Automatic annotation (TrEMBL):
Alphabetized UniProt keyword annotations: Cytoplasm, Nucleus, tRNA processing
Gene Ontology annotations for the cellular component aspect, listed alphabetically: cytoplasm; elongator holoenzyme complex; nucleus
Pfam families found in the cross-reference section: PAXNEB
Protein family membership: Belongs to the ELP4 family.
GO terms for biological process, alphabetical: cell division; cellular response to sucrose stimulus; negative regulation of anthocyanin metabolic process; organ growth; positive regulation of cell population proliferation; regulation of auxin mediated signaling pathway; regulation of carbon utilization; regulation of leaf development
Region (Disordered): 1-39, 359-387
InterPro entries per UniProt: Elongator_complex_protein_4, P-loop_NTPase
Taxonomic lineage from the root: Eukaryota, Viridiplantae, Streptophyta, Embryophyta, Tracheophyta
Name of the protein in question: Elongator complex protein 4
Subcellular location(s) of the protein: Cytoplasm; Nucleus
Pathway: tRNA modification; 5-methoxycarbonylmethyl-2-thiouridine-tRNA biosynthesis
Amino acid sequence: MAAAAAAAGTGGQTLGRSSFSRAASSKTASSSSSPTASGVKLGPNGAAFVSSGIPDLDRILGGGFLLGSVVMVMEDSDAPHHLLLLRAFMAQGVVHKQPLLFAAPMKEPRLFLGALPAPVASSKEDTRQRAMGGGAAADGRAGDEGLRIAWQYRKYFGDDRNSSAEHRDNKQEFSHDFDLRKPLERHLLNAQQIECLSTQDVDTLRGLHDRCSAFLFKHQRKDGVNLSAGRIAIQSLCAPQCGYFEKDWEMVSFLRSLKAMVRSSNAVAIITFPYTVLSDSFCKRWQHLADTLLSIKAIPDEDKDLAKLLTGYQDMVGFLHVHKVAQTNSQVPVILEASTFSLKLRKRRSLVLERLNQAPVDGSSGPSSGGASGSCSSSTQGSQLDF
């Protein structure tokens, strides 16, 4: 009897282990077999990203825009450079066939779709330059150094591994380079699920809230179900053209509700706003509600101090400052290599972001070089530029 009981107990333990292992294996199999949606990239700690439409910005933010987050861009009143980020974000969603909801303070917001840029075929030179950190290279010597280091690593990894990795990246096409001079093909816009809404001459935000709620309801996050990612783009939310311009608390309430709805969905919302029309207290509230906070600053046409301070100043069109980066299910913050980047146009068509590089001090003028360096350092006090 004791032997039979021992045998039964052993059998029970064996049965328990087998059932547990089957459950764990089935759970692992289901999680590994579930494919990702088009244009969605998985990251650590269960994070999922969609591309911002700018490969350099995706690299800076640690993978792109986090699904379920709200991205806010502080506009600059001197130049509409924030539209470059908005167009790239919308064009990337259209290329990935992701549903899009666009709202803007204009009579016909659908006309803005004609300004979306078309993707360009990424050449091997651009792919190699981005792999070596081409955005950080400031001159030819840095590029030659990167080529030499890449050639040294090739001896250890082999050409086959590099070619396969490059083929895999091109096949995924998570992020594209867009030609700002070429509009997106019309058949892509017609075949895509794009909703447009005008916020001009609107007394309340109830209509925009209902449209966003209905849009996000289609992209609710469900375990084990692969849903396509959605994108919401709102241009100049607090613009004076809107009828709800002076209703500050109503706009804050809308942002809180939108953030809650986006957090539980497979979508990303990007909002640009002219922060100069808001009071300081409400501007701080807006910044606090943002998961990812960016700001755009235009460059004056003739700023001799910046021209002496920065390398490649003539090719810059503006600055992008990263104030905050979204993170979910992680206690490790995203450590940025820098917080301020320059906006440049590669070959006058593709938007790139580069770290700021300080120009070398010219010591040919003798004793006067010390005074020049002193004036240069004094001019940078209180500046947001960092190196």
